Amino acid sequence: MKNRPGIFLLTASLALAQACGANEQQVSAVPAAEVDLKGAETSAREDASFDELFRVAGSEFNVPPALLKSISFVQTRYQMVEGAEEFEGRPAVHGMMGLSGALLEEGAKLAGVTVEQARRDARSNIRAAAALLSHRADALRLDRTRASQWAPAVAEVSGIQDEEGRRSFVQDEVFRVARLGLGTLSKEWAASGQGLTAEEGRVEQSLAVAPDYAGAVWRPSPNYNARPLAPRMVIIHTCESGYSGCWSWLTNSSSQVSAHYVVREDGGEISQLVRDASRAWHIGATYQCSNNSNMECGLNGRSSNDFTIGIEHGGYASQTTWPVAQIDASARLLCDMTRDNRIPLDRYHVVGHGQLQPYNRTDPGANWPWTDYLNRAKAHCGTGCVVGGAILTRYNQLGGAGGILGGCRTNELTTPDGIGRYNHFQNGSIYWTPDTGAWEIHGLIRAKWESMGWETSVLGYPITGEMATPDTIGRYNHFRKGTQLGSIYWTPDTGAHAIHGLIRARWEALDWEKGVLGYPITDEMVTPDGVGRYNHFRKGNIEGSIYWTPTTGAWEVHGLIRDKWASLGWERSALGYPVSDEYAVTGGRESEFQKGYITYNASTGALTVRMK
């Protein structure tokens, strides 16, 4: 494939037309802005929702918490995955740390948990990986105070057999992510003097540009043969592993499998393994048009490898969300290959592996964003789109193509629940329903909403545009799902986090971000005992929380009293959950819990625990 320049926003006059009683405006389509993709990736990488689990496991097994977090982001992007077989001979991976086979069993044993716990429980899975890393570090006699010295231990727990794949996993992924930064844990690692420096342990590698797509690197696989037919379709796969483990297996001659391309999770690298004109070995099914809406029935009985191009993606069919940067990078590749091979950009010619091989494959999974994916590919190929009705009115209020949202990227589409309508634009989206009206959402707030599942998430639809907080530091959108209200708040320091339901109502009663708690620094999370829910907050250097259970309701706890409660084991301590906000008492402050009190003496600074 040949690289072609991107599509530029046209400045010519835009035609207006009447359709179904509403104005519609033809707008030139443009690719998604790179700044949005980078911002979404940074937000995902720095997500602090599981930092406490990494911190506790790291402390228990003497492994840097930031290193555990980096491995988790590379392997699963902090998702509890239930892996499946994509390639014969490679065991399925499990949990946030991507542990598989014998490594999963060994890690579970070292951590003192069952294999089933290590598969399905996030805390147990992280502890198993930490125990495994620590055990390898001991065996290798590593200097744990030097970050780069962890490289061989990280390589050994990667589950990757190929030496070059291991090197890439450590240097190009785990250490690269650690250098980019993982939020608070990275800062703590750096402050300890033991973190990864800019150049320490860095190993540079020069790779050739791919022959068919200049946006990819060339890692040739020996697993291919001559193609008997020209490409007619593209098959979308998931690796059921991370990126390096995927391409290194597909370039291994003993694996007897391959694909044409593999796309890294952050979209920052694509590997071409087989020429487009050659037949890769990426699907085990013969073609049956009954699996594809009775399209291309003349191909029935042929191996699907004969006439398809295969794109693998680092990730898992079971994951709930997909990185927007990966989807966009793959869409650029898809545009290029379909244009050069004259393959229609539709769901009959761009198909899932599980669609053509339904008896033992499900990838790319139920949550692959087909509509967004194909719309992005069409936008990169230069297809125009139409904006109309209330969405057009709001778009024009925001400045149209010259405003904050930029150029149009999709036609008006119906949401999966059949209730709403939306257009995607260069820098964001506008969503409309009859009850909420049309509201824009963009930047990192949109990226957070997308990661939660758009309007199908607990937040529902936006009921405001993005607005500035009264202190001018933050930005927010409000949402509604049924009768429940929710919000996403963002600041440069805290990132974007969701808050909703009764926890949000308590935060509102405390005067939002102007109150004692400040801004949320996590989404709403489930407590380890499975009973409660909570958000953490920060104002200046003081952290706070709101905890809720069905029996206690929602109450805040912050500052030194919160620190004391945390040191006792949070809600798992003898005190249980908070049942009041912090209140004034003679000589200090106090919070009440289910089974006792924590009192702060302002004169002495002493914190006293008193049981009921």
Describe this structure as you would to a colleague.
By secondary structure, the protein is α+β, with helices and mostly antiparallel strands. Helices cover 30% and strands 23% of the residues. The strands form eight sheets. Strands 6-10-9-12-8-13 form a six-stranded mixed sheet, with helices on both faces. Strands 19, 20, 21, 22 and 23 form a five-stranded antiparallel sheet that branches. A hairpin with a 6-residue loop joins strand 15 and strand 16. The longest helix is centred in the N-terminal third of the chain and has 19 residues. The N terminus is likely disordered.
Strand order of the largest sheet: 6-10-9-12-8-13
Radius of gyration: 26 Å
- In DSSP terms, counting alpha (H) and pi (I) runs of 4 or more, how many helices? 17
Work out the strand percent: 15-25%
Number of strands: 32
Q: What is the typical, i.e. mean, pLDDT?
A: 90
Structural class: alpha+beta
Shape: globular
Q: pLDDT below 50 for ≥5 consecutive residues: which ranges?
A: 1-35
Into which percent range does the helicity of residues fall?
Answer: 25-40%
Instruction: Report the end-to-end length measured between terminal Cα atoms.
Output: 73 Å
Largest sheet: 6 strands, mixed
